[in-house]
Amino acid sequence: MSNFPTTLLREALEHAPVICNQVEYHPYLGQPQALALALERDLMVTAYSPLAQGAVLHDPVIGEIAASHGRTPAQIVLRWLLDQPQVATVPKAASHEHRAANLDVFDLALADEQRAAIASLARGGHAIAPS
Ligand SMILES: NC(=O)c1ccc[n+]([C@@H]2O[C@H](COP(=O)([O-])OP(=O)(O)OC[C@H]3O[C@@H](n4cnc5c(N)ncnc54)[C@H](OP(=O)(O)O)[C@@H]3O)[C@@H](O)[C@H]2O)c1
How many A from CA of 15 to the centre of ligand 1? Predict the structure, then answer.
């Protein structure tokens, strides 16, 4: 599924198994309900626009965490998403350089307080209007 609010996803689950719901999810947009339902029903949440279409790449909090690891802000955000249970992600990158960098996040470990600092950036507001 994609862009299913939790009420609609619960209804869908009455009719058929669902593997995944793809929703906009990044540090500036929390998805607590989608994540809670994913845990409850063993679904995946695929975070689309995980970099908020580039907006989070200039965030000072993320920039500071990136500098502390010698990584890029994009890598920090992708690692933060992948650290969460039931979460996958689909960043878009036109260049090979960015695609390669975005895959190179599996040897990176964020501290708990860094994950919490990124989560605290959520301010609501979708970049994409699902309707
Ligand atoms: N289901 C839906 O309704 C829905 C809606 C929207 C999007 N999506 C999916 O989500 C995917 C990604 O979303 P999106 O394109 O909206 O936004 P995004 O992945 O959050 O951001 C893409 C932007 O980030 C830049 N970027 C990517 N990797 C980077 C890196 N390592 N360093 C610096 N900049 C980097 C890209 O630049 P470059 O391209 O220049 O590398 C591009 O400008 C789409 O391809 C699509 O499949 C799904």
Answer: 32
Atom of ligand 1 nearest to the CA of 97: 31
Kindly report, residue by residue over 71-122, the tens digit of the pLDDT.
999 999 999 999 999 999 999 999 999 999 999 999 999 999 999 999 999 9
All domains in the chain, ordered by first residue: 6-119 (3.20.20.100)
Query: Which of 47, 51, 46 has the alpha carbon at shortest distance from 99?
Result: 51
Report how far ligand 1's centroid is from the alpha carbon of 111 (Å): 25
β-strand partners of 24: 48
Residues 107 and 109: their CA atoms lie apart, in Å, by 7
- Check the CA dihedral 76-79-85-89 and report its sign: positive
67 CB under 6 A from ligand 1? no
Q: How many C-beta neighbours within 10 Å does residue 90 have?
A: 11
From the CB of 126, is ligand 1 less than 6 Å away?
Answer: no
Residue with tokens 């307080």: 113
Q: Give 68 Cα–ligand 1 centroid separation in angstroms.
A: 24
